[in-house]
Amino acid sequence: MAYDQELADRIRLIIGADPDRLSGLTEKKMFGGLAFLIGGNMAISASKEGGILVRVDPADSQQLTETTGATVAVMGGRAMTGWLRVAAAAVDDDEDLVPWVERSCAFARSLPAKH
Known about the structure:
The protein has 115 residues and is of the alpha+beta class. The chain has helices at residues 5-16, 19-22, 61-68, 94-110; strands at residues 25-30, 33-38, 41-46, 52-55, 71-75, 78-86.
């Protein structure tokens, strides 16, 4: 399954609304989805599995999975703390998608830039 192009476009529009996020912003096809990177650090991706793959502060992972319906991402059979999967139905509306974009971009900006 390919990533949802409409969802990728929505993420792009939300990110584009904040000029602070545009610095160092790149897009890259990764893990079968379309990832949005800030300073070389992945922030969020329109996932090939549907929905989004979101990078968050690992310290927030448990609280977010308990309160939002997001799940810890599993890659290669390994749970990836700090990476969450959010189902497509949970981000159907921009008001549900915007907080995830904002959280993931803020965390990616907090990391040292990769060169």
